[in-house]
Amino acid sequence: QVQLVESGGGLVQAGGSLRLSCAASGRSFSTIRMGWFRQGPGKEREFVASIYWRSGITDYTDSVKGRFTISRDSAKNAIYLQMNSLKLEDTAVYFCAADKVPIGTWDDWGQGTQVTVSS
């Protein structure tokens, strides 16, 4: 099992920026990719972005393309989510997740970090 700890959430005005971090520990060698998900008030959890650990290939949901950037630091076993031009609708609890074989099962999750965007 991989332990994931998110940090960096907070309150920001619309148009501002935040950078989320996720530190991984434990059996992280089996991780194929890592990602960010979010769950807004009264909404279901949704995919935000992912990055393949070895290749660095990234994927984003359409609503954040051009505004959010996911990256990784292999030496620190960490991923990041740089969020720019934040909108009110980005308000959510953001979760870090790790995906192993078979891809798509998103086996391990962090506890989440709150991001609140105000007008």
Structure description:
With 119 residues, this protein is mainly beta. Helix content is 0%, strand content 54%. It is built from no helices and eleven strands. The strands form two sheets. Strands 2, 4, 5, 6, 9, 10 and 11 form a seven-stranded mixed beta sheet that branches. The chain has a four-stranded antiparallel beta sheet with strand order 1-3-8-7, with no helix packed on it. β9 (92-99) and β10 (108-109) form a beta hairpin. It is globular and about 40 Å long. The chain starts with a strand and ends with a strand. The mean pLDDT is 94.
Portion of residues within helices: under 10%
Instruction: Compute the number of strand runs.
Output: 11
Q: What is the general shape?
A: globular
Q: Kindly, what is the distance between the CA atoms of the first and last residues, rounded to a whole number of angstroms?
A: 39 Å
Low-confidence stretches: none
**What's the overall average pLDDT, rounded?**
94
Order of helices and strands: EEEEEEEEEEE
What structural category characterises the helix and strand content?
A: mainly beta
The number of helical elements comes to 0
Write the layout of secondary structure elements.
Layout: E1 2-7, E2 10-13, E3 18-26, E4 33-39, E5 46-52, E6 58-60, E7 68-73, E8 78-83, E9 92-99, E10 108-109, E11 113-118
Parallel strand pairs: 2-11
Antiparallel strand pairs: 1-3, 3-8, 4-5, 4-9, 5-6, 7-8, 9-10, 9-11
Features of this protein?
119 residues; 4-stranded antiparallel beta sheet; 11 strands; mainly beta
Short note summarizing the structure:
With 119 residues, this protein is an all-beta fold.
